[in-house]
Design a protein that fits this description.
Elements (H helix, E strand, L loop, with lengths): L1 E5 L4 H15 L4 E5 L13 H10 L5 H16 L2 E4 L33 H6 L8 E5 L6 H15 L4 E4 L8 H9 L6 E7 L2 H12 L2 H7 L3 H15 L5 E7 L6
Parallel strand pairs: 1-2, 1-4, 2-3, 4-5
Antiparallel strand pairs: 5-7, 6-7
């Protein structure tokens, strides 16, 4: 079994949906575990970032539930099992004093805040046995991606086979990718480029299109999304569609 760790309800499909589809079709047994998939508190924090996101998503009174349904549809397209943990997105999390930890857009990229409950919550999770664990590289430095990356790195150092994927769309920025790789230190990661068949490319595009609430954050239309993803896959594969991964030193790819 292969386990893909996704910070949010779209990251795994966005970043490596073609490989998820390929592994699932080959009978590997694939689970996508989204970690920050829980419901917000009721009422949710009245912060600029929550107001902006809820308006942008247009996902109704229960946006987390709507996003979980999107994720289930996307995973079905890829042939993977969707599993969703109850930890809420960083925009909903509060510190010991009850104040929101990440109240605005800038806070999402400003590093993990002290007293964020997410790292401890992840450490308390028991993961199922898996031939390989796939995790975000942390490209773009979103706090939730960094938290999941650091947890996965700890798993790798404890002996789990961990393979890091390039967080899309942040990986379009070459500088952001280089910074993410540098955080691991020299020689810690080994690159793997995995070619994608035409049906895997189509599956990745179709899965991403399932996330109706998220597309407007990055693209003006579905067609623009498809062009963007295809261009990146072609760039990674030097003219043939592919996805790139980074194995932690000593780990074995699956």
């Amino acid at each position: 079994m292969c386990l893909f760790l996704s910070p949010h309800l779209d990251d795994a499909a966005l970043s490596c949906g073609g490989t998820i589809f390929t592994l699932a079709r080959a009978g590997a047994g694939v689970t996508v575990l989204t970690l920050m998939a829980g419901d917000p508190p009721d009422p949710p924090p009245d912060t600029p970032i929550v107001r902006d996101l809820h308006a942008r998503w247009a996902a109704g009174e229960q946006p987390a539930a709507a996003r979980r349904r999107e994720d289930a549809r996307a995973c079905a397209v890829l042939g993977a099992r969707a599993q969703q943990a109850p930890l809420p997105d960083c925009v909903y999390r509060a510190g010991l004093d009850g104040a929101p930890l990440y109240p605005d857009e800038a806070a999402l990229w400003g590093g993990v805040r002290r007293h964020d409950p997410a790292p401890a919550a992840l450490q308390a999770l028991t993961l199922p046995p898996a031939q390989a664990v796939y995790a975000p590289l942390g490209v773009g430095a979103h706090v939730d991606h960094l938290i999941v990356r650091d947890w996965a790195l700890a798993l790798a150092r404890a002996g789990r086979t961990v393979i890091f994927y390039e967080d899309f769309p942040y990986a379009r920025d070459y500088g952001a990718l280089e910074r993410a790789l540098a955080a691991f230190g020299p020689g810690a990661l080994v690159s793997q480029v995995r070619p994608l068949a035409a049906d895997a490319v189509r599956a990745r595009l179709a899965a991403v299109a399932c996330y109706d609430s998220q597309l407007s954050t990055f693209w003006p239309s579905r067609a623009a999304m498809e062009r963007d993803l295809l261009a990146y896959m072609l760039a990674v594969g030097a003219g043939a569609p592919a996805e790139r991964f980074w194995s932690y030193s000593g780990g074995q790819s699956s």
